[in-house]
Task: structure prediction
Amino acid sequence: MARKNYLFLIATIAVTDFKLKYDNSFLGYFWSLLKPLLIFGTLYLVFSVFTRWDVENYKLYLLLGIVLWSFLAEVTLNSMVLLQGKASVLKKVYFPRWVIVISSSLVSLSTLFLNIIIFLFFFIISGAHFDFSALLLVIFVFELYILSVGLAFLLCALFPKFRDVYHTWEVFVQLGFWVTPIVYPISIVPVKYHTMIFLNPVARIIQGSREAVIGSVGEFSSFGNHAIIICISVSLLAIGLGLFNKLSRSFAEDL
Result:
């Protein structure tokens, strides 16, 4: 199959999945906006009324963190049920199985773009100062996409043989949300734990995005930080895709 046909197939599956995602739903596409906003509203109420963090523009700080983490969670959790949902097609038609993972990730990416638009709306009405460093958000989103797709390939490859992977990863996503400084500022964490927290490249991406968009450019917007994130993300993508391609031959039998 020619490369142009692959791109057409990816686009077709992505558009179809995006439409089916909210089929027969009264609010339809608005659910993709409401979900992170409801999480944001609840956490903002709790941590701005009952517990106050000394963070400038806390609502923007919190919302951006939730939007980026939600994208990672959606891409990786959805990846494990992709093959099962399309088992009938996989058993009848041959095409590269990686097309399904990429198509699903593009659906989540479109949701992320919608959520970023909502974030920008809050940014404007909050009166926050816009700086050209905010354009670095594009780079951070690209890095997050590569990292998320790498994880998606890895999890999707393991799920047909090890179904407990889904529940295990679901727990890790929940724990990761609270271990990563999304709700709270990194400043409240003892310095000796910072290195451990930022072993997680997602924490680096979220912190760097906040520096670029909300605050001043700092260490997480540096070339060194981007190099670390890219190295981890590309390595994970290579490992995940390699394992996925190796195990994809038996997907139809395992589903």
Summary: The chain has a mean pLDDT of 84. DSSP finds eleven helices and no strands in the chain. The CA atoms of residues 22 and 30 lie 9 Å apart.
